[in-house]
Design goal:
Layout (H helix, E strand, L loop, with lengths): L11 E3 L2 E2 L10 H16 L10 H12 L1 H12 L20 H11 L15 H5 L7 H7 L2 H18 L18 H6 L3 H4 L14 H5 L18 E3 L5 E9 L14 H4 L12 E7 L7 E3 L4 E9 L24 H7 L2 E8 L6 E7 L6 E4 L6 E2 L4 E6 L4 E6 L5 E3 L14 E5 L2
Antiparallel strand pairs: 1-2, 3-15, 4-5, 5-13, 6-12, 7-8, 7-11, 8-9, 9-13, 10-12, 14-15
Helix pairs in contact: 1-4, 2-3, 2-7, 3-6
Length: 430
């Protein structure tokens, strides 16, 4: 029987800070504060304060300073963070990141590093960690929704991507205390060698870069395609956990309000196919930090259209801002960012006429902004065949079905339990 299921809104970690889902930022805010303090100490060291910024960061700085409304917004987003626990981060009752100048110096450091498994935990969204509280302010929403601001973020991510796809990024792929093959990380990634394609006898387990490690492949047979030829069953497109299932989704809806309705015309970028999904069904699930990050076909059919949509990276739903902000924004804004975030839409004409046209939507969250489709328009795909991947981390995705597609979801999983890749998630009723 179909049902509505949602994660992450009721449990708390400290004060008014909500639950951090997906494992992208530490559950304990003190771990995040300690991590950020280390980064601040590094960039604020007297020997580094006068160092020149990377050209892409220098251009970002000049853009902020020379555009009056942007200068005002990037100043106010830090001023609007409340000066009370848990949002203040030092004895002067100010946020740890106090202004955009420090923000940019931290960016300058981050884009030359790869995430490690530090202090028995993971800060998988380092830029998100720096912007954690400003994202919940009115000025933050205004700035992070601007296309010109997001263009500078994209330029910065492009530079970071060059490093993360280079051999130099493998320095964290070690068995040291903070390495990805060390004891703490191995406990978070059990049975790694048996699960993923790698060569434990080779340096860095044979991975060519950090991104190569993060987009690692399952070994053959680890996630077999279940019910390959049964077109009445929809399979999981990602190794993920259910965020929401919504029926009767509207073409246009107030996606920014609490409750986060889906607005299908916005989600599907006003594509010509979008009207066919009026009053349809949306299944959304998120990918966790240490999991598999590739997407696979949930049906047998033909790819009829692929749409790449540039969008925002750090805009979160206004309803998730202060006074009760999402501590790992945009985690609790996942429905909101389906209309706002950078994403790829793959329309598939299913072989089963009872399914007909459906859409797979891959949405980048925060710095996980690169969504790469590897299939082509007109290509026939089999259930379980790879469609593409998120780079530099995990994210969220949607399966969208037309009103005419009668579909029933059934899950036994509890909150944040994984839905395995290629496992059946729904039955099409005829």
């Amino acid at each position: 029987m179909a049902y509505y299921h949602r994660f992450g809104h009721e449990s708390h970690v400290r004060g008014d800070v909500k639950h951090r889902i997906g494992g992208w930022l530490p559950r304990d805010p003190q771990v995040l504060e300690k991590w950020l303090e280390k980064k601040i100490t590094h960039v604020e060291h007297p020997t580094r304060r006068g160092q020149p910024l990377h050209p892409v960061i220098e251009r970002f700085k000049l853009f902020i300073e020379r555009e009056p409304t942007v200068y005002m917004g990037f100043s106010q987003m830090f001023e609007q963070v409340p000066t009370k626990p848990p949002y203040n981060g030092d004895p002067t009752h100010k946020p740890q990141v106090r202004d955009f100048h420090l923000m940019l110096r931290l960016f300058n450091h981050i884009i030359c590093t790869a995430p490690d498994y530090e202090d028995n935990d993971l800060v998988g969204f380092p830029i998100n960690a720096i912007l954690d509280w400003p994202m919940g302010t009115p000025a933050g929403l205004s700035m992070f929704s601007r296309p010109d601001v997001n263009e500078h973020f994209k330029n910065m991510f492009d530079v970071w991507a060059i490093f993360l796809t280079s051999p130099d990024s493998r320095y964290v792929l070690t068995d040291g205390p903070n390495g990805w093959f060390g004891g703490p990380a191995s406990r978070a990634l059990p049975n790694f060698v048996e699960t993923y394609v790698c060569d434990p006898s080779a340096p860095y387990h044979g991975f060519k870069s950090w991104d190569d490690f993060f987009t690692r492949q399952f070994r053959p047979g680890v996630r077999p395609v279940q019910f390959q030829d049964d077109d009445s069953l929809i399979t999981s497109a990602c190794e993920s956990a259910v965020y929401r299932i919504a029926h009767r989704a509207q073409l246009l809806d107030e996606f920014w309000l609490k409750g986060h309705h889906y607005s299908l015309s916005n989600m599907l970028n006003y594509d010509d196919y979008a009207p066919q999904f009026a009053d349809g069904t949306v299944y959304q699930a998120f990918l966790s930090a240490t999991k598999y990050h590739r997407w696979h076909a949930p049906v047998n059919g033909t790819v009829v259209r692929i749409v790449n949509v540039p969008g925002t990276y750090y805009a979160e739903a206004p309803s998730e801002g202060f006074p009760h902000p999402d501590p790992a924004g945009p985690n609790l804004s996942q429905a909101f960012i389906t209309s706002m975030g950078a994403r790829v839409i793959i329309f598939i004409q299913a072989r089963n006429p009872a399914v007909g046209l459906m859409a797979f939507v891959a949405v980048g969250m925060a710095e996980v902004s690169t969504c790469e489709a590897i299939v082509q328009e007109g290509q026939k795909v089999s259930k379980g065949e790879e469609l593409g991947a998120f780079h530099f981390g995990g994210s969220t995705h949607c399966l969208v079905f037309r009103k005419e597609t009668k579909i029933s979801f059934s899950f036994d999983a509890n909150k944040e339990d994984n839905v395995l890749l290629n496992a059946p998630i729904a039955k099409v009723l005829t």
